[in-house]
Write a structure and sequence with these properties.
Blueprint lengths: L1 E6 L6 H10 L4 E3 H9 L4 H7 L4 E2 L2 E2 L1 H10 L3 H27 L3 E5 L14 E6 L2 H9 L6 H10 L3 H7 L2 E4 L4 H15 L6 H6 L1
Parallel strand pairs: 1-5, 1-6, 2-5, 6-7
Antiparallel strand pairs: 3-4
């Protein structure tokens, strides 16, 4: 099974790219969705212990947690120590299932793929990218997003230029959705029949 790492900075179009992979019957393990599930379950108690007041009704309240992290950015390292092992365990379970299902390729959608060294655990990397002005316009249109919050997020992410330089494939998402789809389609065609090493080395 070939493992594809899908990444890109906030607002660059990872969700649209992931949806296209799914349309081609390529399973996608969405790290953000995994984190959301963990915030509603097993990660809530250790996060509340580390960040008192960050949960509500037994679940992590993202706005409360974000406010604490904005006030004390050093807390990100504590949060990562709690969440990353749980996320990797969930990703492993999903990939093992994909392998058992006999699919030829699977996608790991991880926003901080390069920043966390996750690119070493996949066979191919795909970066979605758009100009900075389009990125800011997209992100600031989201509910409860502010310029300060966006700047804090970007400060933790590798620059778009660095991600593009390290990618095996770059998908330009600045145009029509059909154009993004066509680029994903071409990548899938180019990867068909290619064997991968990462699953056996890191996930089995």
């Amino acid at each position: 099974m070939l493992l594809i790492g899908l990444t890109g900075s906030i607002g660059m179009g990872k969700s649209a790219a992931a949806a296209r992979f799914r349309l081609h019957q390529v399973p996608v393990v969405d790290a953000d969705a995994v984190v959301h599930a963990l915030y509603c379950g097993e990660a809530a108690a250790p996060i509340e212990a580390a960040f008192p007041g960050a949960t509500l009704a037994g679940q992590v309240d993202r706005q409360r947690l974000s406010a604490q992290l904005l006030a004390k950015p050093e807390g990100f390292k504590t949060l990562e120590r709690i969440v990353h092992p749980l996320v990797q365990a969930a990703e492993r379970r999903a990939l093992v299932q994909a392998k058992a299902d006999g699919v030829p390729m699977a996608v790991l959608e991880i926003p901080l793929l390069f920043e966390t060294g996750g690119d070493k655990k996949v066979d191919v990397t795909v970066v979605v990218s758009a100009p900075a002005d389009i990125q800011r316009q997209r992100v600031l249109a989201r509910p409860s997003m502010t310029a300060a919050k966006l700047d804090a997020i970007l400060a933790r992410q590798m620059s778009d230029a660095d991600k593009r330089a390290r990618a095996d494939f770059v998908v330009d998402t600045s145009g029509e959705l059909a154009t993004t789809h066509a680029q994903i389609d071409a990548i899938i065609v180019s990867l068909r029949g290619r064997t991968g090493q990462a699953f056996a080395a890191f996930w089995e």
